[in-house]
């Protein structure tokens, strides 16, 4: 998975992280961090064997909660409401509408 640059507010800080290659950094689909000892989320523990049972427990709790709350994601992708639009993943700014021109 890659980050969605349109979800980052346009700013000099965004320009700096994009210039540093932020969009080229690979992202794991599943992420698990020890926020007490790794608050900057530098070490993904999701694929570490010692955390398999914790990851399975969390996945099970999430699935049961989704069933209890009748989460629409259980039935597939949730369509946008009528009249709504969303930026494609490749858009660099939320100001860039779907047709590619800037607002």
How would you describe this protein?
This protein has 103 residues and is an all-alpha fold. The protein is built from two helices and no strands. It has helices at residues 12-19, 52-68. The longest helix has 17 residues, at 52-68.
Brief digest:
This protein is mainly α and 103 residues long.
Which secondary structure elements does this structure contain, and how are they paired or packed?
Blueprint: H1 12-19, H2 52-68
List descriptors:
single chain, 103 residues, mainly alpha
Based on CA inertia axes, which overall geometry fits?
Answer: flat
β-strand percent reads: under 5%
Query: Could you describe the largest sheet, including whether it forms a barrel?
Result: none
Structural class: mainly alpha
Strand segment tally: 0
């Amino acid at each position: 998975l890659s980050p969605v640059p349109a979800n980052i507010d346009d700013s000099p800080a965004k320009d700096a992280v994009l210039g540093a290659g932020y969009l080229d950094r690979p992202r794991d689909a599943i992420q698990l961090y020890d926020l007490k000892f790794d608050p900057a989320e530098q070490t993904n523990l999701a694929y570490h064997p010692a955390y398999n049972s914790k990851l399975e427990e969390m996945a099970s709790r999430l699935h049961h909660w989704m069933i209890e709350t009748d989460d629409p994601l259980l039935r597939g992708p949730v369509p946008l409401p009528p009249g709504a639009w969303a930026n494609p993943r490749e858009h660099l700014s939320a100001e860039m509408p779907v047709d590619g021109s800037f607002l």
